[in-house]
Amino acid sequence: MLDDMARAVPETHQDILAAAARRFAVTGYKGTSLQDIAREVGCSKATVLYHFANKEALLGELMAPAIGVLQALDERIAGHTGPAAQRVAAEGFVDLAVRFRREIALLRGEFPDLLQQPAFAHIQQISERLLAAFAGHSDRPAARIAALVVLAGIPEACAEFADLPDEELRPALLAVAHRALDPTN
Amino acid sequence: MLDDMARAVPETHQDILAAAARRFAVTGYKGTSLQDIAREVGCSKATVLYHFANKEALLGELMAPAIGVLQALDERIAGHTGPAAQRVAAEGFVDLAVRFRREIALLRGEFPDLLQQPAFAHIQQISERLLAAFAGHSDRPAARIAALVVLAGIPEACAEFADLPDEELRPALLAVAHRALDPTN
DNA sequence: GATCCGTCTGACCGATCGGTCAGGTGCTGA
DNA sequence: TCAGCACCTGACCGATCGGTCAGACGGATC
To answer: CA-to-C1' distance for B165 and C10, Å?
Structure first.
């Protein structure tokens, strides 16, 4: 089977990735040293840096799937305006947040710093477009404030309720999002 | 005048406090070194540590007023249950968040780490009681999820809309909080 | 003038960080 | 048998961190 071949190559690579995800989720990105990750894997720090160019590349590979879905959502929202965009954005964002709540949890509180880095610069633009969509493309402060409460609150709730099953978390988040955004106008 | 006497003593102390607040707001607590603060003040790092026992003490003095108000709110909420507690908590929390949005901004994304420290341990308990009050003391996941979205979203919105006048920010936040929490049951 | 004290500083400390590098090890294919 | 290669490692690097310490400076007190 090609399964054997495909699995033979990564192994340690995947172990490191998994260990990094575990540590990042507990102590955050900045708060986790390459030593910590190496200790969790049971290898040397040099081995971690053999498999990944640097610490940021490790984070990048860990976040790649989530970022891909986020970009897809951004493009899908671009095709709508006003209330339609608001609905698409809310549903898509809740889906994304629930699905990738592990990845969200490990970036808890480090978004502000990481978004400054050029590697994640475009994510800031996406989140601004998400915010505009949540606000129904309104410039009214009240609409933008409600949008930001939802935009910031949902990921946090996802990270906190990590063990709740998707089927329970998703509709509850969608409901609170619609409630918070709907009568804004 | 006693103004001269009163001002003669602190001066540099206050300068350091103000500079630290400015730097923390931009680069966060962990991301700001004592060197950074000293450079902003125009003094040496040793001077910063002459006026404050250590970096944590600096943060403590910066946050003391906000923490005091938070504790007062906690005690006020304890006197109510159910919907009444929900209303008191929402109004009190919005007031607090708007009033201390500077302090909130400089802790952006560092709450998870800081709450682990023993010096801020009781704040975690307070936020749990706030969460329960927001949820109307219900154990239903949907209620707790909505409560967490509000609890996490409001501070973030406050930090982001730092330049919006209180009279505009406060009612908008209160409205979205009530909307998000009210029909939860 | 001597003494004291609040303020401030440069030099220094040990620890830890992300990252580099030369070299060891064991498998593989010629 | 041996060269080549993927994988892994200990030792090391420069930078930076929070924090310490002995002493310099200047104004008040006696």
So the answer is: 45
